[in-house]
Design goal:
three-stranded parallel beta sheet, binds 3-phosphoglyceric acid, 11 helices, TIM Barrel, globular
């Protein structure tokens, strides 16, 4: 099993985090963990992203990854900050190669059969399906999964409390990702109790408590 699949085997829900103040990271992580979620994809969309990764990297029983990894520089900075998995909106062979070489979990985004085929050729067993809702959701994943036997698809974009469990019913979906349990606004407003409760509800909904 790849490092990516091992990570997802224990983490069927991957929260996508946009954080504006790295000082919020420890409380955010504690809220997610209290709700039963033990990983977070902290995006590099804000200047606080890397510092937030550093602030919580290395915590036992919690995996911190980087999202919006758009270049090898992003990859290296995130790895140096302690990120143990890397997520991108698209498929960049340079980033994938760096991850495979260093044994770091990686989830590049794909949207078409051509991109899936490229990901398989690069040696991946799991991809992110992005933006899942706009691309057709679970029926589209089912159609793509049919020829790519054994490949895992992690939908992201438009996943919510109401459809996460349905995505996870498909054998080709090892995990789902989304921002609904820890939105940028909830973090900005320090509504960590709400994040804990949304996380718990999400875990309950997918039967992973
Ligand atoms: C993103 O693009 O931020 C992720 O795919 C999460 O999307 P979401 O906000 O629709 O969950």
């Amino acid at each position: 099993m790849s490092v990516t699949r091992s990570l997802l085997a224990g983490n069927p829900l991957v929260p996508v985090i946009v954080i504006d103040d790295a000082a919020h990271a420890p409380e955010l992580m504690a809220a997610l963990a209290a709700g039963g979620i033990h990983c977070a994809e902290i995006t590099l969309r804000t200047s606080a992203g890397l510092a937030a990764i550093s602030a919580i990297a290395g915590t036992p029983n919690f995996s911190v990854g980087a999202g919006t990894v758009l270049s090898l520089d992003d990859f290296n900075r995130a790895a140096d900050a302690g990120a143990t998995f890397m997520v991108s909106p698209g498929l960049d062979p340079v980033i994938v190669a760096a991850a495979l070489e260093r044994g770091i979990a990686v989830l590049p985004g794909v949207a078409t059969g051509t991109e899936v085929q490229h990901a398989v050729r690069l040696g991946l067993d799991t991809v992110k399906f992005f933006p899942a809702g706009q691309l057709g959701g679970l029926p589209m994943i089912a159609a793509l999964a049919a020829p790519f036997i054994g490949l895992g698809f992690v939908p992201s974009g438009g996943v919510s409390a109401s459809n996460a469990a349905e995505y996870l019913t498909h054998d080709a979906v090892p995990a789902v990702s989304g921002s609904w349990m820890a939105t940028r606004a909830l973090i900005q407003n320090r509504q960590f109790d709400e994040i804990e409760s949304l996380s718990r509800a999400a875990i309950d909904a997918v039967g992973a408590a």
